Automatic annotation (TrEMBL):
Keywords recorded for this protein, A-Z: Membrane, Transmembrane, Transmembrane helix
Name by which UniProt lists this protein: ABC-2 transporter permease
Organism: Vagococcus allomyrinae
Pfam families, per database record: ABC2_membrane_5
Entry annotated with the keyword Phosphoprotein: no
Transmembrane regions listed in the UniProt entry: 12-32, 38-56, 81-105, 111-137, 146-166, 186-208
Origin superkingdom: Bacteria
Length: 213
């Protein structure tokens, strides 16, 4: 399992310069964005890097080769979910660091807001991953790309819309988000993500298993 993760991280290392440039662009845009929607989008961008590992595995026929090694189908599928979770975590940490710095410099530090955006960035980006992973296991990367990009577009549209509404009525929304309601919102998002993961993982395993039957 550890070897699979290390292999995927080495593959992603090739895109390090590109991701660094994308990160800088999103941080600069997020700094100027009052709604902070661009910052949350950064976490979603990181979660989608899992596609790069699928692309490499399929084009190099690594999936077939891996099955000749002492690696089970379930271990392979699990490694992709762990990779997605790790990338979502990295994206969330970048969002939090940037948000904390932005709020501190502007003297608007708000722990409740940080918790809200951190939770949405982590759980939201991982939620996007667990929705797209079954598609990547079911189809080739070329066939799945359109469906995955459509899902990403929907998520970004949703973030942009919420961010726009937040920016237009920032004071009202902040007043409505009590500590109690923020905790419940994150809890609902966590339960939803956990529930969908319980459906997504067996589907991914089933689709991947069908490839070799």
């Amino acid at each position: 399992m550890k070897g699979l993760l290390v292999k995927d991280l080495i593959i992603l290392k090739r895109s390090l310069k590109t991701m660094a440039a994308v990160t800088v662009i999103f941080i600069i845009a997020g700094w100027a964005d009052k709604s902070n929607g661009m910052l949350i989008s950064l976490a979603f961008i990181f979660s989608m890097m899992t596609m790069s590992s699928f692309s490499y595995d399929q084009f190099s026929n690594w999936e077939t080769y891996a099955l000749t090694a002492p690696i089970s189908l379930r271990q392979y599928v699990t490694s992709k979910y762990l990779l997605s979770g790790l990338l979502s975590l990295v994206g969330m940490l970048l969002v939090l660091v940037t948000l904390v710095a932005k709020l501190f410099i502007n003297q608007l530090f708000d722990a409740q807001l940080i918790f809200l955006f951190g939770g949405v960035a982590l759980l939201g980006s991982f939620l996007l991953s667990i929705l797209t992973l079954p598609l990547l296991f079911k189809f080739s990367i070329e066939k799945a790309r359109l469906a995955v990009m459509s899902l990403v577009a929907i998520f970004f549209l949703l973030i942009s819309t919420v961010g726009y509404l937040f920016e237009k009525s920032q004071v009202t929304i902040l007043n409505q988000f009590s500590s109690f309601s923020v905790n419940h919102l994150i809890l609902i998002l966590f339960v939803t993500t956990l529930g969908l993961c319980a459906i997504s993982y067996p589907l991914s395993y089933r689709f991947f298993k069908q490839k070799f039957n």
